[in-house]
Specification:
By secondary structure, this protein is mostly loops. It has helices at 57-60, 68-72, 117-123, 160-169, 203-210, 237-240, and strands at 126-128, 134-135, 148-149, 156-158. It is built from six helices and four strands. 24% of the residues are buried. The structure holds zinc ion (4 copies). The structure holds a DNA duplex (12 and 12 nucleotides).
Length: 291
DNA sequence: ATGAACGTAGCC
DNA sequence: GGCTACGTTCAT
């Protein structure tokens, strides 16, 4: 009740469409089989994407127009296939969408209705980085134990159940954000650093650098650190000419205000979720109080 | 493992 | 309705 804050609920029917996002010949499922579909969040809450906070340095910045992703944008003369945000604008604290609600009680975050530190915590929405469920910690049955809060991301933790599971079987996944280096799960490498003189460091990368690991853990990390030869990384050009996806829309590289694609957008609706995770503890199972 | 591609969630 | 860009999958 009392949940009508935003009108942007959009359609949630296509919940798992993006799981076969690229490439599947729209009719058949991947060879990866379709039998793991899952059983996690699908039941009640639709998957929630995080979205930019709009307040951090990165969010306030404007597109650099020179990074890899900017160059891909149609507005900068690119093909617009990549559809990623400017590197310099990678939000350093992506937030839960405003439409997010607790999987248990169905309500939004209510942290502002109280000022106790712990009170806030129990009323705010927390998203588990492992099972992705979003809940009010206070709505959990088991509360004392162990939700491990993730300081890197707002409203992110490892719910008690996943945390327990992790103690015996390691499988973290962390939210995506592969291009926002400071965030968990980032695929970004340190940046190449100084290309002559202009070293522009994305906000999202700064934190990571300062938090770099000077002291290695005892024997936790991978003991491998082979000296990579930078020359070996060269990629042949023939590889670049291979793209097999959809090559079309030659369109001129002229600048345009608004480019609109055809209407071939809302076409197919298929579902099938083929996650890799092998086995995630589904927190919705029973950790919650009752029905 | 890494990067390209793309459907569509989220927001205006 | 249009735009941005997240999160997943495909191709290397
Ligand atoms: Zn850029
Ligand atoms: Zn931000
Ligand atoms: Zn709740
Ligand atoms: Zn969890």
């Amino acid at each position: 009740m009392a949940m009508s804050a935003s009108p942007d609920e959009e359609d949630y029917d296509s919940e798992q469409d993006q799981n076969r996002a690229v490439g599947r010949p729209k009719g058949k499922l991947g060879p990866t089989s379709a039998v793991k579909l899952a059983a996690n969040r699908t039941t009640a809450g639709a998957r929630r994407r995080r979205t930019r906070c709009r307040k951090c340095e990165a969010c306030l910045r404007t597109e650099c127009g020179e990074c890899h992703f900017c160059k891909d944008m149609k507005k900068f003369g690119g093909p617009g296939r990549m559809k990623q945000s400017c590197i310099m604008r990678q939000c350093i604290a992506p937030v839960l969408p405003h439409t997010a609600v607790c999987l248990v009680c169905g309500e939004a975050g209510k942290e502002d209705t109280v000022e106790e530190e712990e009170g806030k915590f129990n009323l705010m929405l927390m998203e588990c980085s492992i099972c992705n469920e979003i809940i009010h910690p206070g709505c959990l049955k088991v509360r004392e134990s162990d939700g491990v809060v993730n300081d890197e991301l707002p409203n992110c933790w490892e719910c008690p159940k996943c945390n327990h599971a992790g103690k015996t079987g390691k499988q973290k996944r962390g939210p995506g954000f592969k291009y926002a280096s400071n965030l968990p799960g980032s695929l970004l490498k340190e940046q190449k650093v100084n290309r002559e003189n202009k070293e522009v460091i994305p906000e999202a990368a700064k934190r990571k650098v300062e938090c770099e690991e000077p002291p290695r853990k005892k024997s936790e990390e991978h003991p491998k650190k082979p000296p990579l030869d930078p020359l070996l990384r060269r990629k042949s050009e023939d590889v670049l000419l291979r793209r097999k996806r959809k090559f079309e829309k030659p369109q001129e590289p002229t600048m345009r205000k608004r480019l609109k694609l055809g209407k071939e957008e809302k076409l197919f609706r298929k579902k099938r979720r083929v996650m890799e995770g092998a086995g995630r503890p589904d927190c919705a199972g029973e950790a919650f109080g009752g029905t």
